[in-house]
Please model this.
Amino acid sequence: MKMEWKPEEEGLRQILTLLKESQSPDTATQRAVQQKLEELNKYPDFNNYLIYVLTKLVSEEEPTRSLSGLILKNNVKSHYNSFLPEVAEFIKRECLSAIGDPSPLIRATVGIIITTIASKGEITSWPELLPLLCQMLDSQDYNVCEGAFGALQKICEDTAELLDSDALNRPLNVMIPKFLQFFRHSSPKIRCHAIACVNFFIMSRTQALMLHIDAFIENLFFLASDEDPDVRKNVCHALVLLLEVRLDRLTPHLPNIIEYMLLRTQDAEEAVALEACEFWLSLADQSICREVLGPRLPALLPVLVRGMRYSEMDVILLRGDRDDDADEEEPDRDADIRPRFHKPRSHTIKHNVGGGDSNMSGGGDSDDEDDGGDTDSSLSDWNLRKCSAAGLDVLANVFGADLLPVLFPILKETLFHDDWVIKESGILALGAVADGCMVGMVPHLPDLVPYLVCCLSERKALVRSITCWTLSRYSHWIVSQSHDLYLRPVMTELLKRVLDNNKRVQEAACSAFATLEEEACTELVPYLGHILQTLVFAFGRYQHKNLLILYDAIGTLADSVGHHLNKPEYIGLLMPPLITKWNVLKDEDKDLFPLLECLSSVATALQSGFLPYCEPVFRRCVSLIEQTLNQNIANTQSPEQFDAPDKDFMIVALDLLSGLAEGLDGHINHLVLNSNLMQLLYQCMQDPMPEVRQSSFALLGDLTKACFQHVHPYIPEFLPILGMNLNPEIISVCNNATWAIGEISIKLGPETSKYIPLVLNHLVDIINRPNTPKTLLENTAITIGRLGYVCPHDVAPVLQQFVRQWCTSLRNIRDNEEKDSAFRGICQMIQVNPGGVVADFMFFCDAVASWSHPKEDLKEMFTKILHGFKNQVGEENWRQFTDQFPMQLSARLSAMCGI
Model:
């Protein structure tokens, strides 16, 4: 019989003192406690004391006991594998004996420790755990049953996959039927645990659950109107998950489920309403949505629009009930500023479709982050308002214009309501349907847009801010109409809101203006002076959080109007405040990110206009890269001494250097010459982080264009690295590497020949892969064409392997230098290997016809190939061949090549 462990009085007293001290608000005390706890970990039975305080010291206050348990949990997490076997056994035993502690807090803490031990892979070497917990569910003592269920719920959440594996002999076959028995238990807490436990296994279509799916659904229906809000919430959650996984089982009940969810979406408890509201988002993804939901739209839409109202609590938190709204004097709190994510540069190609000057960037539209126009971070967590707005948005995309006859009466009622909260929800609804119902909205926009412009001067700040967002959702239409009627008034009023006294309105207006800039592009040129004066004035007024959005608006403006910004009076307005910020920000300040992004766009737009500012900017970027690389080396060599660097500093600096290279072109020559940039770039190109490589390859391509003499000596080192990065699994890296290879080959000329074996096979593989994104296909096609242009004899032998995909990839892009060199390449390859194109000649003809104005000598190359082909097959065959052409294609070719 081995002796039972007992604590020593002195040790117990010490630990209790520590636990009391660690609850002190003073940080120095806390730090000292932290250090003592670390030291105590050296004693093997320290953890015995911790579990003893948690489970046995009933005389102590609950928070102290619970804290002891949480410290033990952290030790289990970090050091469990080095616990002595007898300590581990003692802890497990104590946990199981205390699972029914009278105190809910202690029970929950014990449950957390059990789960932490289980998730250390220990669930396999603790075989009695699950059977014991399941057995305890049947206990007549409520505390034991609830404690065991609490622990099981945490285990199901943390180790769902493991529970469904053979490793444990499939315990779920026993557990799931067991859980289902408790759906009708008299205690709401137990019913809640039971549903929650089963819900963890829906998404993975666990076999044990699928066997009992009908019993599960029947039990859910039984609990549908449970008086306990948590039970209702779990029922709603289960139905939302089942809709995605077992629609077949729900289909016969869908009309009833829809009625039920309509009711629950209006539940008095917001948490229940929110869970039910998710159902509409899920249903919109199902192909049966139109059919089953169409008839119920008149019931659903008023509920969703009502759900978009700010709650009384929101209004208080957002100070929406105040009229003065001059909150811009109050300092921003760091906690309110959301982390920003820099999107590294990606080389993209301009398209023929849709005209306009918009660059088809790989990043998608700025609408992706829209969540019901709520830019406030105290409300940035998902709530009923956002979920309702998202629900209306997705349904607008499903039903399109059919939604509007149901929505218009609701809008009439809300948009003109005296209560500003209701009016605000109507304006939000109007913005939410913009994407899906645009075609149906167009006839009403001549009245709605002026109405919204009036709302921009409403007394309530929350109405002004949502109006900014809603207007931005219609910016595509606004830009395409008469400027005097729409664009100018919208722009004038939005710019006034950019200078609003309320910070939330400033933020919404600045974001909306950036969206308008993306749509309007060069249409803004006549108004540039006024726009810049406003944005620069905002610089002097904005606080920290909104400054970051202002940088974005300025960067987007530069991207949108390009070289039109390069006028002395504009540069004089814009650059001084940017450079002042640049000088006050320290190298380790993360506010550099948005400023560097902004300067990158400005440098690209200003071109030579940026020259007076380029030297200090260039030097600082190089130094940021160098510091990050050095910090990284230090951290790799001695991680305990040096923190890992934030590589975003390096990525953003590389991107700004790309902007400088692109904007200044040859003028960057002397800056590169007097720096160690090329050596640093060599290191960045081999960084394990994809975003660093992506930006490095973008910079390499831009430097190749601007000052190839500095790149040239490094080609033997650089090209093998580029070849290794032609991996389409990491699209953006692959895309930029491909583009850089094309730029290098154009400058290197026939010398490229020795590097072609490193890259050609990869490129041919990429162009033939199914589902490759458009941008990558186009860049790959252009690079293959360029390699063929400088080394036709090396590439032409494999012409047949890529020519069809090559032609279809490039038929939609605009005439430009890249397209020109690529097509010269394909023509040269066809001359070397005409047989390689015979099977796909129709595709070649189609690609040639995609040119609007090819240069004369390129047009001659086309003509020569077409006539050569015609002469070879003979008049009769040629006529049969061209008879298959669409009318338009024949007309284009005959006009261009006289054929």
Summary: The longest helix spans residues 611-637. The chain has 50 helices and no strands.
